[in-house]
Amino acid sequence: MSKNSQRYQVFLLDADGTLLDFDQCQRVALDHMLFDFGYPMTEALLASFHRINQGLWRDLAGGKIKKQELLPKRFQIFAQEAGLNLSPELANRSFLTHLSYQVFAFPGVEDVLRQLSERSRIVIATNGVDFVQKRRFALSGLMPHIHQIVVSEAVGANKPEAAFFEAVLKLAGNPDPSTVLMVGDSPESDIKGANDFGLDSCLYDPQAIYPQADAKYTIRKLEELLEF
């Protein structure tokens, strides 16, 4: 990673997979949802849902599906594959309700946010359902270090769409784009969206999954953000 000669004034930070451990949150929420419908949780069911859900969110980033279609469709596909008797709409509602109470921040996140927030504006820029993301952050203990949360559902556009980044910068007070850094774990939404919009991008890739990602910076640890 090359050190940046300037210190960014605004950090746009993705939520799930960057600050919050979505795999853990998803596991608990799915377990509770299945319990609501009278089914036991298994590793096979978790793996199936994770694959389906991840694929559909990639389709969303690629503009192949709308979010209002994605949310129940993942449970329709999941139920069909697993042979479960689920109402997609009710299963989605149950899952989102349980998910909204699940907060597993990665180790060290609070300390990084605290130090960054002392000199820069911290804006959470996340795709997802508005009430779910905002409740999770309200419960996280991280809010003293966060200046704003912008959720795609609330602004009517998803990463990587330009309209999402336009809304984020407007809500952040229209900072000079050269002073803004987008940080996230998704090349398809975080990095592509920032690059297309003309913002500097930083890929958080702790497992070195994306060696060819088109990000200005790649970090393995969130603590590396303190160098910027």
Q: What features would you describe in this structure?
A:
By secondary structure, the protein is an alpha/beta fold. It folds into two domains: 10-20 and 104-227, HAD superfamily/HAD-like (Rossmann fold), CATH 3.40.50; 23-99, Putative phosphatase, domain 2 (DNA polymerase, domain 1). The protein is built from nine helices and six strands; from the N terminus they run βαααααβαβααβαββ. The chain has helices at residues 22-36, 43-61, 67-82, 88-99, 109-117, 130-140, 152-155, 162-171, 187-197; strands at residues 10-13, 121-126, 148-151, 180-184, 200-204, 217-219. A six-stranded parallel sheet has the order 3-2-1-4-5-6, sandwiched between helices. Strand 4 (180-184), helix 9 and strand 5 (200-204) form a beta-alpha-beta unit.
Query: What is the gyration radius calculated from CA atoms?
Result: 18 Å
**CATH fold topology of the largest domain:** Rossmann fold
Biggest beta sheet summary: 6 strands, parallel
SS element count, helices: 9
Record the strand order, biggest sheet: 3-2-1-4-5-6
Kindly provide the name of the CATH class of the largest domain. Alpha Beta
Relevant CATH superfamily of the largest domain: HAD superfamily/HAD-like
Second CATH tier, the architecture of the largest domain: 3-Layer(aba) Sandwich
Portion in strands: 5-15%
The backbone outline, from C-alpha atoms, is globular
Rounded average pLDDT: 94
- Fraction of helical residues: 40-55%
Number of domains: 2
* Cα separation of the termini: 11 Å
Structural class: alpha/beta
